[in-house]
Amino acid sequence: MDFIIKISIESIISNLKTIFEKVLQEFKSYLKFDLIFSNIKVIYHEDDKLFNYLKKDIFKIGVIRTQKDNSLTICISSNYKKFIRIILLREAYKCFIPLELQENEIVNIFINQKVEIDLQKSEYIEDWKELKRMSVISYDFMEAEFDRLENFLKQEGTEDRPSPFQFFISYVRKNVDLIEGIKEESFSLEKKGFYDKIFEKYTRKYSEYPVEILETIRIITAIFYKVKSYRSLLDYQHYFKEFKKSGYIQTDLSLRKFTENMQLIKNEGYISPTYQLNWFALEIISALCFMKFHPLINTTKIFKIIKQLPFFTFPAYSKSNFALEIMGYFLFPKVYLKDISAFLNRLESDGFIIEKKLYIINKAVNTSNLNCGVGNYIILNPDKKDYKKEIYYLILCNNLN
Predict the structure, then answer these.
(1) Closest CA to 157 of 29, 4, 20, 34
(2) Cβ distance 290 to 356 under 8 Å?
(3) pTM (predicted TM-score)
(4) Separation of alpha carbons 173 and 168, rounded Å
(5) Which of 141, 196, 224, 277 has its CA 20 to 30 A from that of 188?
(6) 39 exposed, middle or buried (CB, 10 Å; 0-12, 13-18, 19+)?
(7) Higher per-residue pLDDT: 5 or 372
(8) pLDDT reported for residue 342
(9) DSSP 8-state class, residue 273
(10) Does the structure show a pLDDT above 50 at 183?
(11) What is the distance in angstroms between the CA of the first residue and the CA of the last residue of the chain?
(12) Average pLDDT of the chain?
């Protein structure tokens, strides 16, 4: 996108149609997908009164989009003149997103992050980031995810491996119903779970790491679960020496190599710690739920039911004998246990679901198998020569009640 950075704002406005078409063609070549719309028109508008009601939404800011049949008109406000490069790229990327997901916040966050990366050397980009901070309601909650997402999307693709953003667009276009079903509340656990899923899917399919990097990740994980915090690299250097001397950590890595690898992971990676909440101490029940819906019920209606189902999170969908099966988690105050059970029984008695199971979770065991980063395994096979048992790591085992 160097060409759009080098062109002056006045030149962009004067040649808006030509430049936007060039951007669309470049994106089409980069993403390897056709546009959603067959006819796209972009207009620069001087009347700011039309745009006042959009000012609070960073993902719509500065534009009015009018869609009819397979045609799209994008009207850009002169009030956001200095952000025209950002707006053009954002709207161009959205032309590759299925109609059902045009307003989806998760999709728009990915697009906005990619635009910021594309235009990181452009003027006014810092002003745009500040506007985002003021506009995103859950910014403080999402800030760590934004940072991790930025590191993820900065990776370039190769001939054999798509970039993370190319992978994301492909995933979005193939999984419209699944993404549509994600709850979009500001603090939705599903929203965070989606980021984790995309990172994991891409990493498992395309990433391969040196064994010493995986060993460093194993050690970082062991230290974190021992001290339950991360404040600085210096702290972890101290813990590394202390725990290696005591025998809690057994490794051939030197302190110097551990420090180098940890710095590399910090600067280039997108891993972050996970936390296990003791729900029972908060009088909240965690329950695994399986539901198999009647095959005659429309899939779209099922997704609507799940999206509006209270306390239900992290749904996973699959088809079996024409019936849609859904597995996910309930997190609800203990006083609602009878109500949740009665509701599931009612769904079954009324014929909406033909099979159900509800399991109360009172123990959690988390494991990490870093062998998925060696040799691009599709299915991990412990009998293979390059499988390393020492990097299959039991992280945590807790009784929750």
Answers:
(1) 29
(2) yes
(3) 0.63
(4) 9
(5) 224
(6) exposed
(7) 5
(8) 93
(9) -
(10) yes
(11) 54
(12) 82
